[in-house]
Design brief:
By secondary structure, this protein is mainly beta. It is built from no helices and four strands. Helix content is 0%, strand content 57%. The protein starts with a strand and ends with a strand.
């Protein structure tokens, strides 16, 4: 953890069961940017998760 960033984690894709490296960053009180990748973070995909009240 570095401030609002989390590095060197893992995340699983529930559709295929594969596990990927991940990088997570808190973007304000209601948004979370989650990046899953293989090898280098350039080879991945980012999703923004938004809190629902």
């Amino acid at each position: 953890k570095d401030g609002d960033e989390y590095n060197d984690g893992t995340i699983m894709d529930p559709n295929n069961g594969k596990v990927y490296k991940c990088y997570i960053e808190l973007d304000g009180p209601n948004k979370l940017d989650v990046r899953g990748y293989i090898g280098f973070s350039l080879l991945g995909r980012t999703q923004t998760w938004t809190r629902v009240d």
